[in-house]
Amino acid sequence: THRLLASSITKSYGATIALEQVTLALEPGQVHALLGENGAGKSTLVKILSGVLRPNSGSIEIDGKPYAPASILAGRRAGVATAFQELSLPPNLSVAEALLLPAMRKGVLGLISGRRTVDEAAAILARYRLTDVSPLQSIAALSLAQRQRLEIARALHNAGKVLVLDEPTAALTDVGWLFDLVREKTDAGVAVLYISHRLAEVRQLCPRATVLRNGRSVASVDLSDATDAD
Ligand code: ADP
Ligand code: ADP
């Protein structure tokens, strides 16, 4: 099982302090919610945990080992994968390329034929039940909901230890699909961070939540015996 501990994370953009001394622990097999209004610092924390943004100070450990954000590859090497709110898949790629790009960057696919690449992508699509998407389609031809499911599927596939889901249901019509797959990851011991303003989802999935306000962690909430009023 896997655990992430981010300690005293501070990040500023020029004079704007986006995060100030934020500490966050993601526990094995749990979905931890990150809540906060616009400008609270959620995107900044997501970028830091994903590996793409360096904090000014503070430290992160995964399973007790130091994790230093430097690039998306630093995240991949550490077993962290993120489904970004902005849907990060480049529209000029095919579905297969989008799914396999991390492996290609590692050089794994350098000598593999096109046929094998397509088969491998098809297997990932089947594994994550993206039955309405095919490997050779271009990202640009997908609907918004399909792009979001592909973004999520890629993150699920790459998240060996830590999965970050930033507003993953914004374009989704079938939330059950996501919840089933997230539970498979937590059953496998993966630690999950879930950013959403949809509180019904948070109550359903997340035993704990951290609330950010103006870059500070102002509350760490136990939701495990909250009653569902909706
Ligand atoms: P959200 O709050 O839904 O995450 P935002 O609209 O706050 O989205 O931000 C969208 C993107 O723009 C994020 O990647 C964020 O880091 C970036 N961003 C937010 N505020 C600024 C700013 N003042 N200058 C430049 N980029 C910003
Ligand atoms: P949230 O995702 O909760 O909306 P962000 O992390 O996007 O919060 O933003 C936190 C603060 O940092 C905000 O004041 C925002 O305007 C600022 N900010 C975010 N990204 C940038 C950026 N690239 N350049 C300058 N300011 C930024």
Task: Summarize it.
The protein has 230 residues and is α/β, with parallel strands linked by helices.
Overview of the structural elements:
The protein has 230 residues and is an alpha/beta fold. It is built from seven helices and ten strands. It has helices spanning 42-50, 72-77, 95-105, 114-127, 144-158, 175-187, 199-205; strands spanning 4-13, 16-26, 31-35, 57-62, 65-66, 80-83, 162-166, 191-195, 208-213, 216-222. Strands 6-7-8-3-9-10 form a six-stranded mixed beta sheet, with helices on both faces. The chain has a four-stranded antiparallel beta sheet with strand order 2-1-4-5, covered by helices on one side. A hairpin with a 2-residue loop joins β1 (4-13) and β2 (16-26). It is globular and about 50 Å long. Residues 106-112 have low confidence and may be disordered. One adenosine-5'-diphosphate is lined by residues 13, 16, 18, 36, 38-44.
Assign a percent range to the helix content: 25-40%
Cofactors, ions and other ligands in the entry:
adenosine-5'-diphosphate
Based on CA inertia axes, which overall geometry fits?
Answer: globular
Counted beta strands: 10
Mean pLDDT: 90
Radius of gyration: 17 Å
Terminal CA distance:
33 Å
Q: What are the secondary-structure elements, in order, as H or E?
A: EEEHEEHEHHHEHEHEE
Reported for the largest beta sheet, the result is: 6 strands, mixed
Strand order of the biggest β-sheet: 6-7-8-3-9-10
Total number of helical segments?
7
User: Uncertain spans, ≥5 residues at pLDDT below 50?
Assistant: 106-112
Tell me what portion of residues adopts beta-strand conformation: 25-35%
Structural class: alpha/beta
Protein name: Ribose transport system ATP-binding protein
Family: Belongs to the ABC transporter superfamily.
Domain ABC transporter: 4-230
Organism: Labrys monachus
